[in-house]
Amino acid sequence: MIGEKPLMRSMMGERIWKLMREDRDLFQQETRAYFARAYPGWTVVKVKYPIVFLRDDRGR
Question: Its domain of life (predicted)?
Fold first, then answer.
């Protein structure tokens, strides 16, 4: 969409990625919590190993 900011790409540790295979709900919870601490105001919008795509929601 025109005017949207590009997504930021980031990574996270293998401990969380391992949860993706073991417990999908816990994986999502841990991923959101990890990035809430690391990047307050950013929202996880997509994960594709090894990249996590984040949207800047600060100031919205």
Answer: Bacteria
* Cis status of the peptide bond prior to 40, with omega within 30 of 0: no
Compute CA distances 46 → 24, 41, 52, whole Å: 14, 16, 6
Q: Which two tokens stand for residue 34?
A: 């990890």
Write the single-letter amino acid at 39.
Y
Query: 3-class SS at 8?
Result: strand
Task: Please write the tens of the pLDDT for every residue from 2-59.
Answer: 567 789 999 999 999 999 999 999 999 999 999 999 999 999 999 999 999 999 999 8
